[in-house]
Design a protein that fits this description.
The chain has two helices and 13 strands. By secondary structure, the protein is mainly beta. The strands form two sheets. An eight-stranded antiparallel beta barrel has the order 1-3-4-5-7-9-10-13. A four-stranded antiparallel β-sheet has the order 2-12-11-8, with no helix packed on it. Strand 6 and strand 7 form a beta hairpin. It is elongated and about 65 Å long. The relative contact order is 0.23.
Length: 227
C-alpha cells in the first residue's frame, strides 16, 4: 500500500502543478528547440526476482534521471539517462532513446513518447560483504512515457511537469549472489533478472525554442488575406 501511495502521490503532484491555470494566447508559432530536464521518481520494479526466497521481495525503489529532447513543432526526440548508484549492491543504469508526439496548448506541453534502450543491473542482490556473478548484466527494453509540463518564467524557459512511464525488458538472465565475502559465508541466492517496471517522475528543467510571429509560417496569400 505504501508503494502504491508513493507512486500515486508523486504522479498527482507533478500533474497538478503542470496543469495549473496559465494558458496564454496563441500569438506565437514555436520553431525548433531543445529541452533539458532533471527528474526523480519512485518506481515499482519487478525486473529483479529472488528465485531462492520468493517471499522476500522489495519492489519499491527510487531513481534520478536526466533527459534531453530536440523539439520540432509537435514532435520530439532525444535521450534519457537514469538510475541509482550500487555501491552496496543492486545498482541500476538505464540509457534510452525516446521519440513521439508533443502538442502544445497555451503554456502546457503534452507528451506521448515511445522509448527503447538498455538497462544495466550491477551486483544484483549484493552488499558490501558478498559478491554476485556475473558482476553486471545488460538487457534491452522497450517502453513508453506519457506526461505534461508547464512552462513559466520570463520567456517561458523554465519547465515543471511529470511523466508516467512503463518499460519491459526484452530478455531475461540469471544472477547468483554467492553469500560469501570478507565477513560472511551464507548460502547462495539466485535472482531472475528481467521484467517490468513503472513509475511517476517529477521533472524540472529548461526549454529553449525559436519563436516567430504566428503568421510567419502561413503561405503568402494566407498572410495577406489575414491582414
Amino acid at each position: 500500500m505504501k508503494m502504491r501511495s508513493s507512486i500515486v502521490a508523486a504522479g498527482a503532484a507533478a500533474f497538478i502543478l503542470a496543469l495549473s491555470p496559465g494558458a496564454r494566447a496563441q500569438d506565437e508559432a514555436w520553431g525548433p528547440g531543445i529541452s533539458i530536464d532533471g527528474y526523480i521518481a519512485p518506481v515499482w520494479d519487478a525486473a529483479v526476482t529472488n528465485v531462492t526466497n520468493p517471499q522476500s521481495q522489495n519492489r519499491l525503489r527510487g531513481l534520478v534521471g536526466l533527459s534531453a529532447l530536440a523539439n520540432f513543432g509537435p514532435c520530439a526526440a532525444g535521450g534519457v539517462v537514469e538510475g541509482f548508484p550500487g555501491v552496496l549492491g543492486n545498482g541500476r543504469l538505464t540509457v534510452g532513446a525516446v521519440a513521439g508526439w508533443q502538442p502544445r496548448v497555451g503554456t502546457h506541453w503534452f507528451q506521448v513518447l515511445g522509448e527503447a534502450g538498455a538497462e544495466r543491473f550491477t551486483d544484483v542482490g549484493g552488499d558490501l560483504f558478498s559478491t554476485t556473478t556475473p558482476h553486471e548484466i545488460w538487457l534491452s527494453y522497450l517502453g513508453a512515457r506519457i506526461g505534461v509540463s508547464e512552462t513559466f518564467g520570463r520567456g517561458g524557459h523554465f519547465v515543471l511537469g511529470g511523466w508516467l512511464f512503463v518499460r519491459k525488458d526484452l530478455d531475461e538472465a540469471t544472477a547468483t549472489n554467492n553469500g560469501a565475502g570478507l565477513f560472511s559465508s551464507g548460502p547462495a541466492t539466485d535472482y531472475r533478472v528481467g521484467g517490468t517496471s513503472a513509475g511517476a517522475t517529477l521533472r524540472f528543467g529548461f526549454r529553449f525554442d525559436r519563436r516567430r510571429p504566428a503568421g510567419d509560417d502561413q503561405p503568402p496569400e494566407v498572410a495577406v488575406a489575414a491582414n
